């Protein structure tokens, strides 16, 4: 198991405090800069490894940054704290985005990112909970994250814990029936301590989601299963923050975050081939310059 980086964890705590004290525009700027720093790190990491899912990483990073740098009750130096909030990345193929976020928060040293997908590395192509602090459950086989998260939310209720469970889903994986069994159970049990976030970039491996299996009206589907639903711009950090921290009713919440695959890099945006295409050295230079603007 990797161990925390105390210096980076201390910087993360200072960031969280500054965010709490800041006004809206400063908050937006802080999260935007932090997310783009992670995007740049992710690009270089995938370029070194020669594999990854860069398009989905780019689309989900604003969601992950907002959660880890302003919302989640976690402690990078105490990853097993019993009452921590639980975070599950159901779309486990975007592990690169999670690893760059966890490293930036101090869950492990930034230098570990250089080993991504290498022999014997803890940072596999899909997250592993026995190797990486901050990973609550192994994911990769799509359709499993929401059912596991429902179980976590039920466990929190049974133990009387105040912890909240957040799970990020890919929109393509909602074509898996196990998600809807879990959604029905969450609605039935009125799991108000569960928030599902859909990374709605409308692309999956090889095609658009609506060409593969129609998902819309996605909001009405979740409401029919007994969920409260919010729909936001998945790249507007303050809209995400407001959705994640909004007062809860007595039902689970689904946040549909409308995103763009490859966000922040002009030649990647909304292009299906960047599901798992690896950028060249020249493309990384161009992308890094765009993200620095």
Automatic annotation (TrEMBL):
CDD domains: TPP_TK
Family of the protein in this entry: Belongs to the transketolase family.
Keywords: Thiamine pyrophosphate
The Transketolase N-terminal domain, residue ranges: 34-275
Listed SUPFAM superfamilies: Thiamin diphosphate-binding fold (THDP-binding)
PANTHER family per the UniProt record, alphabetical: TRANSKETOLASE N-TERMINAL SECTION-RELATED
Signal peptide: none
Name of the protein in question: Transketolase
Pfam families xrefs: Transketolase_N
Cofactors demanded by this protein: thiamine diphosphate
